[in-house]
Specification:
Elements: E1 10-16, E2 23-28, H1 31-36, E3 47-50, E4 65-70, E5 76-82, E6 96-101, H2 104-108, E7 116-119
Parallel strand pairs: 2-3
Antiparallel strand pairs: 1-2, 1-7, 3-6, 4-5, 4-6
Length: 133
């Protein structure tokens, strides 16, 4: 997808690398969806992509999460685990933030430098290239 395409809220699939198994993905692109995020939930089946985003917090959350900061090409530039009640530092090159239950990203093969791809409301196929803002 080329520049100028907007991400939309909805369901999708996440894949790490070319061999990764698709993981259920929620896409939070609107201000309202990004603000709500994982607040008030007891867990998540899969992952949540916040876009655009450069930082997150876990105030009001009930469980620990893995947080991957992604650049505009959906490459992981930083990966941290956060307990509830924490404030994450912003990452200057981050355009998107991926959240999942603690330990999930390691199981999916997501690490710093990994390339992820997304299929969803504004992404017709895995591997079709990321949308950019």
């Amino acid at each position: 997808m080329g520049r100028g395409r907007r991400w939309t809220d909805g369901q999708g699939a996440l894949r790490a690398g070319t061999d990764g198994v698709p993981v259920p993905l929620e896409i939070a692109a609107s201000y309202r969806a990004r603000t709500r995020g994982l607040l008030g939930r007891d867990g998540i089946a899969g992952a949540l992509l916040l876009t655009p985003a450069a930082s997150v917090h876990t105030f009001g959350m009930r469980f620990a999460i893995d947080v991957a900061y992604l650049d505009r090409d959906l490459r992981v530039i930083s990966l941290v685990s956060m307990a509830p009640g924490r404030l994450g530092l912003p990452r200057l090159r981050s355009r998107h933030v991926l959240e999942a239950g603690a330990g999930a990203m390691a199981a999916w093969g997501i690490r710093v430098g990994a390339q992820v791809s997304v299929a969803g409301p504004s992404h017709p196929a895995l591997g079709g290239g990321p949308a950019r803002r």
